[in-house]
Amino acid sequence: MRADACSRGWLALAWLLGANVALAHGERNQEPFLRMRTAQFYDVSWSTDHIAVNENVVVTGRFRLFEDWPANLPQPDRVFIGNGTPGPVLARVESYINGAPAIQSGRLQLNRDYEFKTVLKGRIPGRHHVHPMLNVEGAGPLLGPGQWLEVSGDHRDFKLSLTTIDGTQIDNLETWGVDTVVRWEGFWILMALVFVGWWLRRPLLMTRLRALELGHEEALVTRADRRFGAVFLVSTVLAVFGAATWAEQKYPRTIPLQAGQFRVEPLPREAQEIRVTVKRATYDVPGRAMKLQVEIHNPLDRPLQVGEFMTSNLRFVNHALPAAMARVEASYPAELLPRTGLTLPDSTPIAPHETRAMLIEATDAVWETERLTSLLSDPDNRVGGLLFLYDDAGQRSIANVSGAIVPVFVGS
Ligand SMILES: [Cu+2]
Known about the structure:
- The chain has three domains: about 160 residues, Sandwich (Jelly Rolls); about 80 residues, Helix hairpin bin (Helix Hairpins, Orthogonal Bundle); about 130 residues, Immunoglobulin-like (Sandwich), CATH 2.60.40.
- By secondary structure, it is α+β, with helices and mostly antiparallel strands.
- The strands form five sheets. The protein has an eight-stranded mixed β-sheet with strand order 18-17-21-22-15-16-20-19. A five-stranded antiparallel β-sheet has the order 1-3-8-5-6.
- The longest helix is centred in the middle third of the chain and has 28 residues.
- The N terminus is likely disordered.
């Protein structure tokens, strides 16, 4: 949510300055190493692009925690699945990782894949950018792709009703218990006012300083003051004790949500993992082209073809491969699907058990517009992403791609 708050600030500033801004919400401001080498989201889809207040949108997909996780980031020892939206415009009513409820945080493993599902309920009307998101303790929010969602209706109609495990019916969680909070806050504010008022009704500051200077400090605290102090102390302790007892009796069963951690097994590994070694990676600055010279070993008994290179939620798809094109969901945001896709100077299938050196090119202005070219000034200068390969039966395999990248400033 840090990114949200920050980008809202910038949006407000840009609006004040009369600038024409695109209404996304700050995902492009994250450093490239955070976006290219942490959580790699894929197969993400949104059940709809329009809901009314109180209706649900379901976001599903998978992510892989990248093998070449940045050394300067903490490991994903405590991870929480959420959603990246501009503020609490949706209420997350359900979340799952690999089918298990992901209400709590938990440890996830690097270089493994997980399936997620979140159910989000429309709360505040408007046009919102909705991302799946992983919060990794110490590393911050890691965003998946964002899709626009229209929420129509009236916020005043929003209702979050549920039945607790002890059978208590909660008509609307939004307002439930708020009266009690207001009453107690009011009580403590009153106590504070009485205490401060007691001392404020006297002559203040200069008079008291003068008394101190003359050595009359005893006159500053009277017997009545001491008695008041004692009564106040006792009544404060009694109020705290009484309130705790009252709450204990009214709500005898409470379960702290975040006290435990969830444990979930990652999805099974692919039977035979495909090894991709990056021999040389360059970014052609004037040509806006990422060129990866790789060596791919095909351990399978079927020929393989490169179908897609995915990094930072951008999908460079090989348009010549129907199996890869079929995997592009209709709901996937168009701005994250560069038009030229993936260029392969040598597109002949990699034969079973062959090791092939090949060039993969991803050329698009999106490197600039998504502000990924600043990776050239990242201290560790590494690029990362997933390579999707398909065999002749359309079966997909996913391989990690990572390596050091060198900028090329002069056109070749
Ligand atoms: Cu966004």
